[in-house]
């Protein structure tokens, strides 16, 4: 990044005074990095002031469309930031939170019946165990929150045909750190809309808006970092084209015929929590 012939950048960097009242040295250092990259982008693209202001106006429209997070997701920025946050320990990796978490759902029993008897779709059991990533010890009483779309890829809060909090659940792990969730296999879906700022951008870039089928979960336990993640299903054809790049190998699970329930599928998910710093 050769910026020796950029006097404006030099002045912008020098304008940050370390001894100014209220100055934050850490923020100044990070903002200096951002400035260098922004100026390098302008240099490479040869942006005029009119083009720059068009970009600023477009970002304002993205905010009005409430799609700033979607923009970060489709650019791969969210997944990259999660990659950089990984500690290298045995802890289960974080994944994208998604737009529809509801931590306030009522806590129910373990096993958890996430799908009612009249819910259409392929029946599936999700079972597993929560443990300490450092010691391997099980974590009794860890709280698990689960949410997902139905077999058509629709979440309850965007689909009037579903009852409130459908396919959402909260439960506590048993004395062996175990949990069981009975549900249906979710469908994939298309994110966003074609007529928004981000939707139009994705179309012009030749990008699809497909999300691979997945189940969200969050695990909370005092003394541990909260884990928010997702599971994807091995062999699903949408995994390689997931538009936010979150179908990483660590989160793809095998699906097998259930050994005890005819016609059901079984997914095993072992979760390791990172002790709090």
Could you give a quick summary of the protein structure above?
The chain is 25% helix and 22% strand. The chain is built from six helices and twelve strands. It has helices at 7-14, 25-45, 49-64, 68-74, 77-85, 197-204, and strands spanning 112-113, 123-132, 143-147, 168-172, 178-184, 189-190, 210-211, 214-220, 227-233, 252-253, 256-257, 265-273.
Task: Give the biggest beta sheet.
Answer: 5 strands, mixed
Strand content: 15-25%
Residues in helix, %: 10-25%
Please, what is the CATH homologous superfamily of the largest domain? Answer: Aromatic compound dioxygenase
CATH architecture of the largest domain: Sandwich
Give the number of DSSP strands.
12
What structural category arises from helix and sheet content?
Answer: alpha/beta
Count of discrete structural domains? 2
Q: What is the CATH fold-level name of the largest domain?
A: Protocatechuate 3,4-Dioxygenase, subunit A
What's the helix-strand series? HHHHHEEEEEEHEEEEEE
Strand line-up of the largest beta sheet:
1-5-2-12-11
Q: What do the pLDDT scores average to?
A: 95
EC number: 1.13.11.-
Domain Intradiol ring-cleavage dioxygenases: 112-262
GO molecular function, one term: oxidoreductase activity
Family: Belongs to the intradiol ring-cleavage dioxygenase family.
């Amino acid at each position: 990044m050769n910026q020796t012939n950029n006097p404006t950048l030099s002045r912008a960097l020098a304008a940050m005074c370390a001894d100014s009242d209220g100055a934050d040295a850490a923020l100044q250092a990070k903002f200096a990095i951002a400035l260098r990259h922004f100026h390098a982008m302008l240099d490479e693209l040869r942006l005029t002031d009119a083009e720059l202001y068009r970009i600023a106006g477009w970002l304002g429209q993205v905010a009005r469309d409430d799609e700033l997070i979607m923009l970060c997701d489709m650019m791969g920025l969210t997944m990259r930031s999660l990659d950089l946050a990984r500690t290298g320990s045995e802890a289960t990796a974080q994944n994208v939170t998604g737009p529809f978490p509801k931590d306030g759902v009522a806590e129910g029993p373990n096993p958890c019946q996430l799908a009612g008897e009249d819910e259409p779709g392929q029946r599936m059991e999700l079972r597993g165990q929560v443990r300490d990533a450092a010691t391997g010890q099980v974590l009794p009483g860890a709280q698990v929150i689960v949410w997902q779309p139905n077999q058509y890829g629709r979440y309850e809060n965007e689909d009037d045909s579903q009852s409130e909090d459908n396919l959402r659940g909260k439960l506590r792990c048993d004395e062996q750190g175990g949990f069981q969730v009975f549900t249906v296999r979710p469908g994939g879906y298309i994110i966003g809309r074609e007529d928004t700022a981000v939707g139009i951008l994705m179309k012009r870039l030749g990008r699809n808006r497909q999300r691979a089928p997945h189940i969200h979960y969050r695990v909370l336990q005092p003394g541990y970092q909260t884990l928010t993640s997702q599971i994807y299903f091995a062999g699903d054809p949408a995994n390689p084209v997931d538009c936010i790049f979150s179908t990483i190998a660590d989160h793809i699970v095998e699906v097998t015929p259930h050994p005890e329930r005819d016609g059901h599928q079984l997914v095993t998910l072992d979760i390791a929590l990172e002790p709090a710093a």
